[in-house]
């Protein structure tokens, strides 16, 4: 069966859990190995197509397209404790090093905008920190190039549809926010010379840096939870490549603003007649809410927080887009933006330095800080009846 642009859009956009008005899904539109009559469909999206070009608001969260509206199952399942969390964190640190050095080099070379200078070079908490203590840019690039080669080959539309379907239909563990933070302590990277801190201490560092700068409490809490999506590595990821790394849209041409753009040559979407077009399945001004970003810890946590917290849109944007460097740092994909996205971009840029530059060997004390942050957690993840802390479905 030959694919047409409109046929592909209609089938992807009209799907519902029940099968939608399309009935069976034509095989060319399915991820490899899926059954067209299984009744297990990729995701739940609104009836209108992305080409409809509408502006999403907070009240329209449930009408998002590939960002989608996910209902998580209320069934607990243990995480896989045998995965190499230290290796994941080593890769994640190397990715951060590259992004730190790229930003610093732009400032040093005079190619940064004044806004970037203000954000990356003049952050209050970073004023006394010597960025040259981080490993050199070239060494970090060598560490991450093979990672990005694998990520760029495997992050396809088909995989992203399947990942979202798995997120929607499979069981996950249940635990509180603080328990999730403690779980991430298994990701301590003892071989990392940049910091000897555990994940919970890094999260507290980011939150405390934001707090010292007198940012709103929701902003502080966002710093605390922003990397909890790395729990995905212990649950349902295929490897490191669908957990960490810079994110980017799928379903349209891979932009030159993405790190190592040449490594997409083995991604089948780069040769697809629709996905390889500049706009692909999208239209200019469709809005970032309606874009399917490459699956990873940001997207995973975004959907959890969107459904189970009262965090504002700015916080959700910080969580979802903080690894979307092609957009918030390199200036790519501006054609996708609507009016809301201008505000969200400013929020992400305000958050980014706290993620990158708050690493240090200054040891925060979780026991002393827990009471303060538990108040914030209970404010934005309000406990349900009978709970003292909100139990989150991961």
Automatic annotation (TrEMBL):
Fe cation binds at residues 202, 226-227, 297, 322, 355. Its EC number is 1.13.99.1. It is found in: Cytoplasm. It is an enzyme of class 1 (oxidoreductase). Binds 2 iron ions per subunit. It comes from the Eukaryota. One of its GO terms (molecular function) is iron ion binding. Substrate binds at residues 135, 189-191, 230, 245-246, 322-323. Keywords: Cytoplasm, Iron, Metal-binding, Oxidoreductase. This is Inositol oxygenase. It comes from Friedmanniomyces endolithicus.
């Amino acid at each position: 069966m030959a694919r047409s642009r409109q046929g592909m859009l209609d089938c992807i956009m009209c799907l519902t859990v029940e099968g939608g008005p399309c009935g069976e899904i034509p095989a060319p539109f399915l991820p490899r190995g899926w059954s067209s009559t299984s009744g297990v469909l990729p995701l739940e999206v609104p009836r209108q197509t992305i080409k409809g070009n509408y502006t999403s608001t907070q009240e329209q969260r449930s009408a998002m397209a590939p960002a989608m509206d996910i209902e998580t199952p209320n069934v607990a399942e243990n995480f896989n404790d045998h995965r190499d969390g230290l290796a994941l964190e080593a890769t994640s640190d190397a990715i951060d090093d590259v992004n730190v050095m790229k930003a610093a080099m732009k400032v040093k070379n005079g190619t940064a905008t004044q806004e970037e200078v203000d954000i990356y070079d003049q952050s209050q908490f970073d004023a006394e920190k010597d960025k040259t203590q981080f490993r050199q840019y070239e060494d970090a690039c060598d560490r991450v190039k093979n990672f990005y080669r694998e990520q760029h080959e495997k992050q396809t539309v088909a995989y992203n549809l399947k990942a979202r379907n798995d997120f929607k239909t499979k069981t996950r563990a249940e635990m509180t926010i603080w328990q999730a933070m403690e779980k991430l302590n298994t990701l301590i990277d003892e071989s990392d010379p940049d910091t000897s801190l555990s994940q919970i201490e890094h999260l507290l560092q980011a939150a405390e840096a934001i707090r010292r700068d007198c940012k709103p409490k929701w902003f502080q809490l966002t710093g605390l939870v922003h990397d909890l999506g790395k729990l995905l590595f212990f649950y349902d990821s295929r490897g490191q490549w669908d957990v960490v790394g810079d994110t980017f849209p799928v379903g349209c041409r891979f932009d030159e603003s993405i790190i190592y753009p040449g490594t997409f040559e083995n991604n089948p979407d780069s040769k697809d007649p629709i996905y390889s077009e500049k706009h692909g399945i999208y239209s200019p001004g469709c809005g970032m809410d309606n874009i399917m970003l490459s699956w990873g810890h940001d997207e995973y946590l975004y959907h959890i927080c969107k459904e189970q917290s009262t965090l504002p849109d700015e916080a959700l944007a910080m969580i979802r887009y903080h690894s979307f460097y092609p957009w918030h740092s390199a200036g790519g994909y501006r054609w996708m933006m609507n009016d809301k996205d201008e505000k969200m971009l400013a929020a992400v840029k305000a958050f980014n330095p706290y993620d990158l530059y708050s690493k240090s060997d200054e040891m925060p004390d979780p026991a002393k800080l827990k009471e303060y942050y538990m108040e914030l957690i209970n404010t934005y993840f309000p406990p349900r009846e009978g709970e003292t802390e909100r139990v989150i479905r991961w």
